[in-house]
Design goal:
Strand order of the largest sheet: 1-2-3-4-5
Largest sheet: 5 strands, antiparallel
Radius of gyration: 22 Å
Structural class: alpha+beta
Shape: elongated
Strand content: 35-45%
Helix content: 40-55%
Number of helices: 3
Distance between the termini: 30 Å
């Protein structure tokens, strides 16, 4: 999860795996180009050609994967509205959209997990000094980015507590 927007009143974090989504689109667009070039060369009766069939499968599969499978999550900490908004999407479908008042956030931590002998990280916030809520379900490998994001969130939580008093 990476900070994409940071102002005095708001932090916007996004977990948007660009490589995964780009590969799906390249696969889909490449399939459509292969399909259209086969049709251009051999006409509409080219359905029996291998390139036509592969183009159709790649085009439909890539675009369907892009629309249905690409996972993204967003976290917006807003001082003006005084809330934390968490949104998770898979493709074009919104899986969840939750909001929590900033006054309920008490701490931030960096969760660590070893996956195939490599350390992975994600940011979690503590709600009402009880439950830890991860900002994203995915773990990432870029420790400096996660540490910097965690410090910015901690600063925003502290400033919201100071403004509340």
């Amino acid at each position: 999860m990476e900070v994409t927007s940071y102002t005095q009143n708001e932090i916007r974090l996004e977990d948007n795996p660009w490589l995964e989504r780009t590969l799906m689109m390249v696969f889909g667009v490449g399939g459509i180009i292969l399909l259209l070039s086969t049709m251009n060369q051999h006409g509409f009766q080219a359905w029996y050609r291998f390139t036509f069939q592969v183009g159709a499968i790649c085009g439909i599969g890539g675009i369907t994967a892009f629309l249905l499978l690409g996972y993204r999550s967003f976290a917006v900490l807003d001082l003006k509205k005084k809330n934390l908004s968490l949104t998770e999407k898979k493709g074009v479908k919104t899986l969840s959209n939750r909001q929590f008042p900033l006054s309920h956030l008490t701490d931030v931590r960096l969760d660590r997990k070893t996956i195939k002998e490599q350390q992975k990280y994600r940011i979690s916030v503590q709600i009402n000094s009880q439950e830890w809520l991860p900002l994203s379900q995915r773990f990432g490998a870029d420790l400096p980015t996660y540490e910097a994001s965690g410090r910015k969130i901690q600063g925003l939580i502290l400033s919201s507590e100071t403004n509340a008093q």
